[in-house]
Amino acid sequence: MVAGTAAAAVHHHSRSSTKNSQAASGKPVLLSQQPGTELDKQARLLSADDIATSLRHHQPPLVLIGSAPLSTRKGEIALFVQLQSAALCGSAGCSTDVYLHRGDDWIKVLDSISGAISILPQSHGGMYDIIVDGDDRWVWRGGSYQDTVSAPPIGNLRGEIKRFQAENGVKDDGGH
Length: 176
What we know:
Elements: E1 9-10, H1 17-24, E2 27-28, E3 31-32, H2 38-46, H3 48-56, E4 62-69, E5 77-84, E6 95-102, E7 105-114, E8 117-124, E9 127-132, E10 136-141, E11 144-147, H4 157-167
Antiparallel strand pairs: 1-3, 2-8, 4-5, 5-6, 6-7, 8-9, 9-10, 10-11
Region (Disordered): 1-30
């Protein structure tokens, strides 16, 4: 689901069968260079600050874009933008920003997500669900995308702290 002619495409690989099964039910968003297209021009305008940062480091970024219907409403298209340069990408790879075209405006609906992106057929609040990196599901709630992955439980942290304090003669001063 990419507009324009693809000069270079980015393909992401899932790491497990669980990731493959969840991502397989969605439509992958393919990112590619699309120089000179209207979407490329918009992506460069929307990412002007990050592009300037990369250029200050003498590293012109590779601009990869993709588009897909993200809203259940006809005509509202999403623009996926990934900038690639050593100045902008970290240990988790390069991140992607997602913008929704509403009227004359582009509204950022997801910021700095890393990994392969697929659009699921299920929707919440008029927006399709998204799978990132094979198993990280994002749903539209309360006017924004919310990650459905909950933080891992930390167990009995308070009890472990009290036990440590008792074993090591540390007085609990109540945080003062």
